[in-house]
Amino acid sequence: MIIKLSHCLIGVLLALSTVAHSKAAEYSFGVLNQRSPTLTAQYWNPILQYVGQKSGVALRLKMGKTAQETALMTRRGEFGFVYSNHIFTVENQIAGYKVFARPDEKPVQGQLVVLDDSPVHALADLDNKDVAFPNPSAFLGYFVPMDALLKARIKVKPVFSVNQEAAMGQLKAGRVMAAGVHSEVMSDFSQRENIKYRVLWASPGYLNLPLAVHPSVPQTSARAVREAFVKMGSDPEGIKILQASSALLKQKILPGFVAATDKDYENVVHFYRTSLVKEQQ
CA-to-CA distance for 33 and 66, rounded, in angstroms? Predict the structure, then answer.
């Protein structure tokens, strides 16, 4: 009886150890507020479930109600992993996030766009006009186009929205003359909403949002997650998930992810350090 009891006790202890290990291996995955929370969850949850299964590291989607709130959570290091370029701001670099991968895509741009039938044909036409922006934290949707306007000495009246697509919705409804946008998100939105638009101004190219890890995450877990993301685009199961997520946004199929480092985003860091926009905050 004593031996049986010992075996039972060992079994219980092993089970508790497994549960504790499982909890320790779960990390929050912060995503920048570009789209609505519902659409973000529908897009990312299948990807995170796949990566969790392949890596053995559970990832749980988490984001603030607004981009500003998500940025502050990033600054405080509340996410184990993030999909965000806010890690490069002067204020947020203290959190210590390190890039490990990125979407396997061409560079994207910050743009100022108008509806196709708009009477606006040059940046100067926007002087003293209402222009929609996602929020004061958006890199491509606010910082980059606003920096261009400031350098051109064109004063506009910013109309802030909750996220990228909300700003685009303001433009579609005719409530503003133009919108500052992320080129890829704008292209996806226009296809889903069947609207035609023109690009008044476009920035140089910047790599799309990076995947980064907080220094508190063990290197073994970080490596396992990176490997799962990078191999996703060559795995039939992973490809199906990427296709489904891309179809949800009516965008071209996301080819997957490639390994990356902070060095790949040096132009983003340089921009934040030299932008005129921070002087307007």
Answer: 7
Residue pLDDT, tens place only, 103-150: 999 999 999 999 999 999 999 999 999 999 998 889 999 999 999 999
> Is the per-residue pLDDT at 14 higher than 80?
no
CB 30 within 8 Å of CB 81:
yes
For the cut 60, the answer to whether the pLDDT of residue 20 exceeds it is: no
Confidence of residue 264 (pLDDT cuts 50, 70, 90): very high
| Cα 154 to Cα 150: distance, rounded to the nearest angstrom | 6
Report the distance separating Cα 70 and Cα 175, nearest Å.
27
Q: Which residues contact 211 (CB under 8 A, 6 or more apart)?
A: 81, 82, 83, 99, 100, 101, 102, 226, 229, 257, 260
Give the separation between CA 67 and CA 144, rounded to whole angstroms.
16
Q: What is the pLDDT of residue 260?
A: 98
3-state secondary structure the chain: CHHHHHHHHHHHHHHHHHHHHHHHCCEEEEECCCCCHHHHHHHHHHHHHHHHHHHCCCEEEECCCCHHHHHHHHHCCCCCEEECCHHHCCCHHHHCCEEEEEECCCCECEEEEEECCCCCCCHHHHCCCEEEECCCCCHHHHHHHHHHHHHCCCCCEEEECCCHHHHHHHHHCCCCCEEEEEHHHHHHHHHHHCCCEEEEEECCCECCCCEEECCCCCHHHHHHHHHHHHHHHHCHHHHHHHHHHHHHCCCCCCCCEEECCHHHHHHHHHHHHHCCHHHHC
